[in-house]
Amino acid sequence: MSYLLKRIAFYIFTAWAAITINFFVPRLIPGDPVQALISKERGQLNADAVHSLYVLFGLDKQQPLWQQYLDYWGQLLHGDLGLSFTFFPSPVSEVISSSLPWTLALVGITTVCSFLLGTGLGVLAGWRRGSWVDLVLPVTTFLSSVPYFWFGLIMIELLAGPDSIFPSSGGYDPGVTPGWDIDFIGSAVQHSLLPALTILISSMSGWILSMRNMMVTVSSEDYITVAHAKGLSDRRVMLGYAARNALLPNVSGFALSLGLIVGGTLLVEIVFSYPGVGFQLFQAVGAKDYPLMQGIFLIITLSVLAANFIADLAYLVLDPRTRKEG
């Protein structure tokens, strides 16, 4: 119980530190985002109108910094992430909520599938090392070394085209109206096939390699020899003893992957112009949309912390040593 309380305290402190850093970063960046917005719109505003914009975006220089900090916390507690410069006057939360389902559907499903498939194949390759399963290792080693975005460009070159079923960009066909109907869902699934295949193949290779190496290490432990000596079946020793202990390092990696789902595979979404959070962040950086960048960074940070907390809970179940004092 004390272990769990310590972890909760650690994550609360880390979340506070992340939110505080997220508050100060836009204020330390050179330049003036409000003046950049005015210049972009080529507007001629009087001093009162300019001051109103500073107040609207939470950058009122007439207020002390500590008061801005308290106001920022008050906005967060009410779910207010500010207003987007690019999509003004739309709130940042509304902009993020429109792109978040795309990233969760694409990166979330592919991350879970790649972990399950890669871990399963890694267990088999590590347990039956020296067999035909090892023949896939050179291929997985090569695929894991290829960057996501480069692999995506190769997939577009090989599989996308005028007569192909794989669209090369976008989230759905231009003439389709978003909604819960067959036409839109079918179009969205079709546009997600190529980026999903890119993420699945690239990330699955890494899970295979890491799990295979851990299985080889665990197989030489004494408790595996004792399990065989007790007459347990080979399948039970592989899954109940070797795989369960070899899985622990992968749990941490999977937790980080779950947290980064919100951020999306940024370069993959850029290559395929997929309307997810990663592509939204790319557009925000190009437009110097500080509130939108700030909101996306905050969502990504909190997602990583939540995923790591879930990993700690999984450790409590998988590793009995974490449930004991001293």
In short:
The chain has 326 residues and is mostly helical. The chain has 2 domains: 2-77, no CATH class; 95-319, MetI-like fold (Orthogonal Bundle).
How would you describe this structure to a colleague?
With 326 residues, the protein is an all-alpha fold. The chain folds into 2 domains: 2-77, no CATH class; 95-319, MetI-like fold (Orthogonal Bundle). It has helices spanning 2-28, 33-41, 47-56, 65-77, 92-127, 137-145, 148-159, 182-219, 222-229, 234-259, 266-271, 277-287, 290-318. The radius of gyration is 24 Å and the shape is flat. The chain starts with a helix and ends in an 8-residue tail after the last helix. 29% of the residues are buried. The mean pLDDT is 77. It is a multi-pass membrane protein.
Write the topology of this structure.
Elements: H1 2-28, H2 33-41, H3 47-56, H4 65-77, H5 92-127, H6 137-145, H7 148-159, H8 182-219, H9 222-229, H10 234-259, H11 266-271, H12 277-287, H13 290-318
Q: Which keywords apply here?
A:
326 residues, MetI-like, MetI-like fold, 2 domains, transmembrane helix, mainly alpha
Q: Mean pLDDT, rounded to whole units?
A: 77
CATH fold topology of the largest domain: MetI-like fold
Sketch the major β-sheet: none
Distance between the termini: 13 Å
Radius of gyration: 24 Å
CATH superfamily of the largest domain: MetI-like
- How many structural domains can be distinguished in the coordinates? 2
Structural class: mainly alpha
CATH architecture of the largest domain: Orthogonal Bundle
Q: How many DSSP helices? A: 13
CATH class categorisation of the largest domain: Mainly Alpha
- Uncertain runs are none
Order of helices and strands: HHHHHHHHHHHHH
β-sheet strand percentage: under 5%
- Shape category: flat
Strand tally is 0
In which range does the helix fraction lie?
over 70%
